Amino acid sequence: MIRIGNGKVITRDAERPYMEDGAVVCDGEIIKEIGTGEEMQKKYPGAEFIDARGGIIMPGFINAHTHIYSGLARGLAIDGFDPTNFYEILDGMWWNIDRHLTMDGTRASAYATILDCIRDGVTTIFDHHASFCEIPGSLFAIKDVCRELGMRACLCYEVSERDGEEKTLQGIRENAEFARWAAQENDDMIKAMFGGHALFTISDATFAKMVEENNGLTGFHIHVAEGMDDVYDSLRRFGCRPVNRLLNNGILGEKTLLGHCIHINPAEMEILRETGTMVVNNPESNMGNAVGCSPVLPMLKKGIVVGMGTDAYTHDMLESLKVFLLIQRHNACQPNIAFMEDMKMLFENNRIIAGRYFSKPLGILKPGAAADVIVMDYKPFTPFSDANVDGHMLFGMMGKNCRTTVINGRVLYKDREFVGIDEEKINAWVMEQSKKLWGELNHRTY
After folding, report:
1. Which residues contact 286 (CB under 8 A, 6 or more apart)?
2. Residue 259 gets which letter from DSSP?
3. Predicted local confidence at residue 195, as pLDDT
């Protein structure tokens, strides 16, 4: 049993949203009780005590869309790579990386990503993987790293026809085999979706194979209308817009998650609302790739569940929180919009998205919820209360404020040190793998 106390508690539970001096008691995988520090100390004197040192005790963050396969790209420059549009970014950078990503490279990417997530207080990830060099077994390799390091994850493989029929079929099989394994395992730490890349890299025949192999096991996790390539391709080859294509192919539904949805129109939004399909926005990635500003505010107004991801541009969810507000206000030329929607996406809708896959409540501190708790080392120099928590989140905190991370009742990171994880050994091995990858990409030794 663990008692996390001596801090301000933000629960994200409407019944008891905030305690000035609170404590959270975890019993195994779940939260047992929340109360004042004094109450919990008297009631659970034998519990292991984690001192928040006056910081903020809150639920761990959920990242609704990331890419482990980009984990070894930090600082990478590929010789001759100077993209002028989104397709060139995909083909020259990301597809180039995943075409050289071996099984060890996939494992190394998972280690690097997950360690950074834990440091930034992220306790659940929805990953969208690609390693066209070695596809079979790649999701299982990532699963093994998630289990070793203690990360809660929902995984899928990015089906795409960009590298030919055999690779397409391997991607479909990897999704199907992993989805069947996850369904049989029924582990609330590891779940599965059925992944697909951008629609312009997937034919209707491939969609039919994906639906057949999935056989209703899980929902789909697909990039949609991130660039105009999807729109042009769908109109030219199929006579309809991207969301209509997904509807026609049986992809949409309450467990399906669409990444980006930047270039969709009001009619497509209506389809998403009627089918209960979820969307995830990735504001920093959209700005970095210069693909546009997603119409998140109209989607939310229609009642579509739009969550927040990072597209692996960062692992800091508070960074995405800040950038979302900026891109929406800049795009609309209105300085008084998007604040409430920003908070809703990260702290409510990501919880809804996770709730469609994981059985225990995530993203909330209350009895019976998953014991995913973080401590933020944040000492405010202005008044701090339940009335302005979100303002402090947006303008004061960063992921790097995280000092302690507990996932599923397991203390993984305490006072900025990993617990039971040999960081130096892992980093040394990851460095070896990154040098191999960079060497192959640039044909030289690092």
Report:
1. 226, 260, 262, 292, 293, 294, 311, 327
2. E
3. 98
Question: Do strands 56-59 and 61-66 pair parallel, antiparallel, or not at all (unpaired)?
Answer: unpaired
Which strands form 194-196's sheet, in the order they lie side by side? Answer: 194-196, 220-224, 257-260, 278-281, 306-308
Instruction: Give the span between the Cα atoms of 161 and 248, in whole angstroms.
Output: 19
Contacts of 292 (CB under 8 A, 6+ apart): 262, 263, 286
Residue type, 339: F
Half-sphere exposure of 245 (CA within 13 A, CB side): 30
pLDDT for res 177:
98
Report whether 308 contacts 64 (CB < 8 A).
yes
Q: What is the DSSP letter of 30?
A: E
pLDDT digits (tens, 9 = 90+) for 368-427: 999 999 999 999 999 999 999 999 999 999 999 999 999 999 999 999 999 999 999 999
236-244 own/partner pairs: CB under 8 Å, 24+ apart: 238/204, 241/265, 241/267, 241/268, 242/199, 242/268, 243/268, 243/271, 243/272, 244/268, 244/271
Contact by Cβ (8 Å): 97, 73? yes
Specify whether the CB–CB gap between 111 and 145 falls below 8 A: yes
Tell me the Cα Rg of the chain.
21
Whose tokens are 């009627």? That residue is 274
Q: Three-state secondary structure along 66-123?
A: ECHHHCCCCCCCCCCCCCCCHHHHHHHHHHHHHCCCCHHHHHHHHHHHHHHHHHCCEE
Q: What is the pLDDT of residue 323?
A: 98
Characterize the bridge pairing of strands 56-59 and 2-10.
parallel
Task: Report the C-alpha gap between 406 and 414 in whole angstroms.
Answer: 8
CB 109, CB 70: distance < 8 Å? yes
Positive or negative: CA dihedral 269, 273, 275, 279: positive
Bridge partners of 223, per DSSP, are 259
DSSP string covering 296-326: HHHHHHTT--EEE--TTS-S-HHHHHHHHHH
Residues β-bridged to residue 5: 23, 51
Q: How far is CA 149 from CA 101, 123, 405, 412, in A?
A: 21, 11, 12, 8
Amino acid occupying residue 220: F
| Residues of the chain scoring pLDDT < 50 | none
CB contact at 8 A, 150 and 410? yes
Q: What is the pLDDT of residues 8-17, one digit of tens each?
A: 999 999 999 9
